[in-house]
């Protein structure tokens, strides 16, 4: 068996050869995201120590107080990407407003939206967390990016991916020609190809949701969960519930093992949240892109996630994603309740 040692950069260059029109700048942009991920990995992997050492009393080289990890990750992403000349604008889960490219740096033809450290509240209990990114092409006129460049539907993404900081650190991304996973080898500091062309199973026995909200869900969603509990799978096993509270970890498992991840809207109870919790632009759209590229399906229960035209930067949507047969079934039950 030949064990190919392929770095992300080599894999991107090889892919690029098949798409001559794609110039090197996309590869360079991805390399900058990878650099940011390595710096974030370095801090996340010793988070417990920094908590113990009371790192918040430190002042770093920039004269700033050392920040909480999610704020740290946000600064790393911005600092690694704002001067590379490939981006015309950015947006982050941590920033209320769009992040312009500083005037002193050249503006490029790509747009980056990201959640720098999703699930960061789980770090204290050593549960996997992750960074999520979505890349679009600039569509606005003029040199610098505008809000319209950020508010694009997910089907127009040029690429998307996540880094999961778990028992191993992995980069999973797609540029429209399949989903590929790379595992970080800390001894050489490289992400090496470990999961080529990831394909999600057509159906799965795992459902992933916060059942604590069960009573707030719509009848169709409740029916689906009860069905998952009652239905035996082909192997005559009952379904399993797996939920970490970190979207990146739950989506990563869903990609590999199949089944469905769902964060429905909460339509009943004292504090209804019909749009749910997850953000469209830098959580659901990039994850939907990956799930579809791996042969799965992702919707808000009624509409394909990638078709939703965003109307605001931090817009939330209900999210159902995973094996196509699982998502089709919950969509059928939601349509039935609406009939
Ligand atoms: P809940 C983490 O805070 C996050 O944004 C996602 O990573 C995760 O899927 C979700 O929220 C968990 O939310 O309400 O179940 O704690």
Please describe what this structure looks like.
- This protein is α+β, with helices and mostly antiparallel strands.
- The chain folds into two domains: 8-195, Fructose-1,6-Bisphosphatase, subunit A, domain 1 (Fructose-1,6-Bisphosphatase, Chain A, domain 1); 206-338, D-Maltodextrin-Binding Protein, domain 2 (3-Layer(aba) Sandwich).
- 32% of the residues lie in helices and 20% in strands.
- The chain is built from nine helices and 13 strands.
- The strands form two sheets. It has an eight-stranded mixed sheet with strand order 2-1-3-4-5-6-7-8, sandwiched between helices. Strands 10-9-11-13-12 form a five-stranded mixed sheet, with helices on both faces.
- Strand 9, helix 6 and strand 10 form a beta-alpha-beta unit.
- Helix 1 runs antiparallel to helix 2 (24-44) and helix 6 packs across helix 9 (324-338).
- The longest helix has 21 residues, at 24-44.
- The model is unreliable at 52-56 (pLDDT under 50).
- Residues 118-119, 121, 210, 245-247, 277 line the site of 6-O-phosphono-alpha-D-fructofuranose.
